[in-house]
Amino acid sequence: MIRDAATCDTSNCMAIYLEPDDLPEEQTFESALSEAGWQLGTDGHTCPACSNGQGPVLERGECPRCCGSTVDLPAGSTCHYCRHVQPYPAGIDSPIGAEIRTLGDPGRGLDPMPPHPRGM
Predict the structure, then answer these.
(1) pLDDT averaged per 10 residues, the chain (length 120)
(2) Do 84 and 78 touch, CB atoms closer than 8 A?
(3) What per-residue confidence (pLDDT) applies to 74?
(4) Could you please report the per-residue DSSP string of 41-72?
(5) pLDDT at 53
(6) What does 66-119 look like in DSSP terms, one character per residue?
(7) Domain locations along the chain
(8) Helix residue ranges per DSSP H, 1-120
(9) Is the pTM of this model over 0.85?
(10) 6-33 burial: b if 16+ Cβ within 10 Å, else e
(11) SS3 21
């Protein structure tokens, strides 16, 4: 299967968007790209992370919007860069949910997002 793809044109950004396998026949790649938060300007494509000041994407992973690295949090798999949250499939609890609830000061809670890989 051949799929369309877009790359971020921001300097040093490794973000890529791959056309979803399940893209409806009537939906265009450009509309799917836009729905994923990508922007097209005079200087090319800009990924959601760079558009929101969280980029460039420096480490590839499993984010469906920018292919950035992710971390498993109770709400779902969360991108370090564009902050997209991919919920866990129905019937599957967070792989770390029980651990998160038992760590730290019970009254304070934990930070919802671990530190950004670049220290931001």
Answers:
(1) 91 95 92 95 93 94 94 91 90 56 44 58
(2) yes
(3) 86
(4) ETTEEE-HHHHTT-----SB---TTT-B-EEE
(5) 93
(6) T-B-EEEETTEEEESSS--EEPPPTT---TTHHHHHHSS-TTT---SSPPPTT-
(7) 5-102
(8) 29-35, 48-51, 97-102
(9) no
(10) bebebeebbbbbebeeeeeeeeebeebb
(11) coil
